[in-house]
Amino acid sequence: MATVPRISQPSPQKYFHNHMFTHKLYSLKRSVASIARELYPGGLSSKLIRHPERRQAVTAAHSTQPWHPHFRTTCTVLLVCFLAILFEGYDVGVMGAVLPALAEDRNWNLTPLQLGALSSYALVGMFFGAFLIGTLSEMMGRRRMLLLCVSVFSLTMFGASWAPTPVLFGVLRFIGGLGLGGVIPVAAALTIEYSPPHRRSFNYGLMYSGYSVGILCAALVAMWFLPSLGWRGVIGLGAVPIVLIPLMAWRLPESLEYLVGQGRISEAQALASRTGKGRLQTGAGLDKNVDRATWRDVMSSIFSRRQLRATACFWMALFFGLLLVYGLNTWLPTIMRKNGYDLGSSLSFLVVFSLASAFGGLFLGGAADKMGARGTVTSFYLIGSVAIGALMFRNSVAVNYLLVALAGVGSVSASLILTGYLASYYPAHSRAAATGWALSFARFGAMCGPLLGGYVAGSGLSFEWNFITFSIAGLAAALAVGLLPSAGRRVAVAHNRQETNA
């Protein structure tokens, strides 16, 4: 009788190992494919195809993808806008750095209230400049207006350093403020336009950190050169950016959105081919007429009954936030000098304040991504308020440095992250308008900060009341952010997801 051969069955253990090997091989294949898609969004075929005719076909297919800038173009625009914001930070911070020396100028004999007024003239100009330059940039071009703004406040800094009277000094500071007010919106628009979508928030934060670096430079220049050059020389150094205008004009490209909006399509296509890859969209996405048609919708999304509470909270939070920022930038060295420190030591506190503000923005940005922007901003406004209030006590120098650093993070850095949170809170079609309106209203707080510090200093009250006043402003900002509707964050997340999937 013939025997039927037995088919050997794999043991359960061997079957398990074979199954696991196949599963791991499949997982490895998917991982490699995922990495390849990240490294080569257009596909590996563009890297592996050697035949010219096939490579041309692949290139033609990829040319239909949306336009995105070259890395070199992004770096160039980011650097130019960073420098423009840095120069603005120096212009704003230099008044606080030279204020103690200006107060001791026997030729002018200014009262504390007059000193606060001189510090606020530039802020008044910034309030009007934000509207004026924002409108002109749509008619004359963002690149041209950014260069014009830097030129205006650089020349007025030079003129202010030679001003024979406080009146002329204030007039020049006001004119310079017109240029300062247009730098931030134009630089922000160019940075976002020439940044990849997944890097726009980081690049915006990096660009805006130039403001704190500029304040730091103002404090360092005052520490090193104020004894030898005097307050006029330190202010006059703010005219140095005028030398860099030709280089900035040579490297900075014009806004593609502006060119398309003006109907200069061929010029926009030529610029897009030099500065990036892909197909430039010239339809509704970049047409300014679309924005004009939906202007009523934009305003209703900001001031509607559903968004009115959020709008009011954002406006009040930024009002008190900028009051805190500009008040401390202007009066911190003077207050610390009244606290018993000499001029050099009092300026060193402004250096610590600026350094902490510069690095604090990057730290708070990461914290906001993980824990939520509203909670992060509220917490650090509270921390900054407590730190400012603690400066009224007799602490050691090291403790005061730490408190000043926390005050910088809890004022400048928190206000920066709050601005980014505001932009993501509203729908995409109204983000720019919502941010512009809020920052314009917040300029009143920026004007009130130096005036409030001057009023307290000239009222005969002890120096502790300066810290109490600014500490209350920090508490008010934290309260306003804490009262924001929690549903807004879910709406913002939904909008972001829609844009990511689009």
TrEMBL record:
The chain crosses the membrane at residues 77-103, 115-133, 145-165, 171-192, 204-225, 231-250, 308-327, 347-368, 375-393, 399-422, 434-455, 467-487. Pfam families: MFS_1. Residues 77-489 form the Major facilitator superfamily (MFS) profile domain. Signal peptide: none annotated. InterPro entries: MFS (IPR011701), MFS_dom (IPR020846), MFS_trans_sf (IPR036259), Sugar_transporter_CS (IPR005829). GO terms for molecular function: carboxylic acid transmembrane transporter activity. It is found in: Membrane. Its main location: membrane. Keywords: Membrane, Transmembrane, Transmembrane helix. GO terms for cellular component: plasma membrane. Coiled coil: none annotated. It is a multi-pass membrane protein. The keyword Transmembrane applies. This is Major facilitator superfamily (MFS) profile domain-containing protein. It comes from Cupriavidus taiwanensis.
